Amino acid sequence: MKNVISLVLAIAVILSFTVxxxxxxxxxxxxxxxxxxYSAWAYDYHKTTGVKLNYQSIGSGxxxxxxxxxxxxxxxxxxxxxxxxxxxxxxLQFPAVMGGVVPVVNIPxxxxxxxxxxxxxVCKIFLGDxxxxxxxxxxxxxxxxxxxxxxxxxVHRSDGSGTTAIYTHYLSGACAAWKDKVGYGTxxxxxxxxxxxxNEGVANYVKRTPNSIGYVEFAYAKQNKLAHTLLxxxxxxxxxxxxxxxxxxxxxxxxxxxxxxxxxxxNAPGKNSWPIAGATFIxxxxxxxxxxxxxxxxxxxxxKNGDAKAKELIYIPMPKSLKDKIRAYWKANGIY
Length: 336
Known about the structure:
single chain, D-Maltodextrin-Binding Protein, domain 2, 2 domains, 10-stranded mixed sheet, 3-stranded mixed sheet, 20% strand, elongated
């Protein structure tokens, strides 16, 4: 009898560890753009609930691939998937947080927020048509800056990237030559430049390469002390990336649950809108109800408790009205 009781107790312990392990880990992968804020939320969530979040910062292309293959509980993507793509792969999609993508430069003597660029200049630099920093086009936009007679090193993403999707979507909308020759997507055929993996890789390349230009999510620019540029927006104003200019872009967005919130924020028409704003999205496999409920619990907690941390890390939290739309979407799909 004693042996039977010992065996039962041993099995109970094993089962408790198995159940606890199943309950305590949530696996996600994808966009590097939101990685800092997801990590911070995960840390606080684990302290509060005991549930761990393991999020692999592998780029939006990888995140989409992994949720399509059902190897994670959720995918992260800055690339907005169309309702057709979502239906094809039996996926759900909702935005989690907003931010901005910014051109960053390493030009000796040029300070943060000092260099002015318009969409034509950015387009020509990334097409390879403007090769020197003292090109007339850039000098005309910056008559007070002593720009060097140095070749521009372009840095772009080497991996499938939602940050790239947002950046190239901006260029395609603002520059006909870019739209015709390159287009937009998580991966494009870059005309010039060197590739870095993740926002981290691009930030590191720009940081250590004089006379370079790249693009990163704004939080990475701040964390790495990179010099962002000013940009001329569609309203004709030179604007700085900031909470106000990102929020101005977000205010023009029409997020609709009926099309799974498939909305871009680039080239927004607002007077003070930053032209390369974007939301980052969570992708769920429709049939994985249990893991979807766990994922939704995490993001619902973040929507209620994570706004201050998001702002601290230079992200724009979802407006309350949008959070309510997302909760209704979860409810309609039986996961909230």
